Amino acid sequence: MASICIFIAAAIMVGFAAINISKIINAKVAYAKPNPYRKQLIALYLALPLLFLFFPFSTDWDTYTFLVTIRVPITIVWELLMVLGIWLDNKMYKKYHKN
């Protein structure tokens, strides 16, 4: 039963990823109004991976092993992707909002 639930969840995630990729491919560059909460959103995006790293934490050794071997590297990759995305967003923001 659990494997069926995991398969359904993975299929839903793949579906959403495919929809988002098709939206990105078919997107057109348009002027967007600047977000007044831009700095708060950047701080939230950078804090989210660290929050999810330590949120479901317990003191048994299995959790510690999982934390060190799986969650820490994934969190580092996630954080680097967020920093790259924010850097690209700032670069595009400065390019298209010169006035």
UniProtKB/TrEMBL annotation:
* Superkingdom of source: Bacteria
Keywords on this record? Membrane, Transmembrane, Transmembrane helix
Transmembrane ranges, per UniProt, are 6-29, 41-58, 64-88
> What is the name of this protein?
Uncharacterized protein
**Origin organism of this chain?**
Lactobacillus hominis DSM 23910 = CRBIP 24.179
